[in-house]
């Protein structure tokens, strides 16, 4: 009976070991290849917006995709070297000859690269191409009313047209006859407000224009964070040591705060600032990391301002007077 129980225990342990081992086995893909669906090898096309598409390989964790100009034997420019999760990648080209290659990887190794050639044909028919936008980037946020829009050049273009849309009011501003691939525009977003926009660029020549031009969105944010609140010391004219911690709370409705500015001054108007400290989180900070007691009882004021990710600064909260000793 005891031998039977021992046998059962050993059998269970072996089964458990085999089951667990499966979780740690990485499939060997070194002799596999990535099957490309599109674009076809040596494709010559006037369409400059290309979707790279391949079959997902069993055991692959990600795919390394590289694109060069003109080929890997004589690289003039490395355009893309990225790891992709999934089986598609989009890229917009300028006319020219390119090579691209892809391999699958996992924790155990990788396949060999599969290499293909692609030719983006110079064409005067703009219906088949689109303008590739550069800056501002997708969902960009800025506090600056002066923005320079830039995009990639296209062949056989007479001029470009920039379209700006306020996505809240739906008002549209169109600037035509732009020669070149950039345009500086001044907005009128008032201090203390924010506005959301989209932008796109269309190219024209004498008989055609681009279609399905991409749209990007951005926000001009000139609205400062809300005031922080002083927690302690919060008693006016309190006598304390310079090792005392200053504590405050950020306003919970201001989610975009990059840091707080803690200031100590010898006067209530903060005309004579003794020290400041930028703090990334609203964590308590000792007074003597900003200003140290100098063996003479000193009267000081302290206050807090908050700064968001694009540099908008809140008004400081009401300062508190302290006596350091």
Key features?
325 residues; mainly beta; Immunoglobulin-like; 45% strand; elongated
How would you describe this structure to a colleague?
- The relative contact order is 0.11.
- It is built from one helix and 25 strands.
- The protein folds into three domains: 36-120, Immunoglobulins (Immunoglobulin-like); 126-221, Immunoglobulins (Immunoglobulin-like, Sandwich), CATH 2.60.40; 229-324, Immunoglobulin-like.
- It has one helix at residues 2-24; strands at 36-38, 43-45, 49-54, 62-69, 77-84, 88-92, 96-106, 109-110, 114-120, 133-135, 140-142, 146-151, 159-166, 172-178, 182-186, 194-204, 216-221, 229-232, 238-240, 245-249, 259-265, 273-279, 285-286, 298-307, 320-324.
- Strand 4 (62-69) and strand 5 form a beta hairpin.
- Strands 2, 4, 5, 7, 8 and 9 form a six-stranded mixed β-sheet that branches.
- Residues 16-23 have low confidence and may be disordered.
- 7% of the residues lie in helices and 45% in strands.
- It is mostly beta strands.
């Amino acid at each position: 009976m005891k031998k039977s129980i021992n046998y059962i225990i050993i059998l269970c342990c072996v089964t458990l070991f085999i089951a667990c081992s499966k979780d740690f086995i990485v499939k060997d893909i070194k002799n596999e290849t990535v099957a490309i669906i599109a674009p076809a090898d040596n494709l010559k096309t006037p369409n400059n917006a290309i979707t790279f598409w391949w079959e997902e390989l069993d055991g692959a964790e990600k795919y390394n995709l590289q694109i060069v100009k003109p080929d890997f034997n004589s690289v003039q420019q490395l355009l893309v070297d990225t790891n992709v999760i999934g089986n598609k990648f989009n890229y917009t080209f300028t006319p020219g000859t390119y090579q691209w290659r892809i391999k699958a990887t996992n924790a155990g190794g990788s396949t060999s690269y599969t290499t293909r050639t692609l030719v983006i044909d110079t064409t005067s028919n703009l219906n088949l191409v689109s303008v590739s936008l550069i800056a501002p980037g997708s969902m960009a946020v800025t506090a600056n009313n002066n923005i320079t829009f830039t995009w990639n050049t296209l062949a056989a273009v007479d001029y470009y047209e920039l379209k700006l849309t306020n996505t809240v009011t739906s008002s549209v501003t169109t600037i035509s006859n732009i020669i070149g691939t950039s345009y500086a525009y001044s907005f009128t977003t008032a201090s203390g407000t924010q506005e959301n926009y989209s932008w796109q660029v269309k190219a024209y020549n004498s008989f055609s224009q681009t279609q399905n031009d991409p749209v990007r969105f951005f926000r001009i944010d000139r609205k400062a964070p809300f005031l922080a609140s002083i927690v302690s010391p919060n008693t006016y004219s309190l006598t304390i040591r310079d090792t005392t911690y200053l504590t405050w709370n950020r306003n919970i409705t201001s989610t975009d705060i990059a840091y707080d500015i803690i200031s100590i001054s010898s006067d209530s108007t903060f005309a004579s600032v003794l020290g400041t400290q930028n703090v990334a989180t609203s964590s308590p900070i000792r007074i003597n990391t900003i200003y140290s007691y100098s063996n003479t009882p000193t009267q000081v004021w302290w206050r807090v301002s908050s700064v968001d990710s694009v540099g908008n600064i809140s008004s400081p909260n009401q300062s508190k007077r302290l006596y350091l000793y």
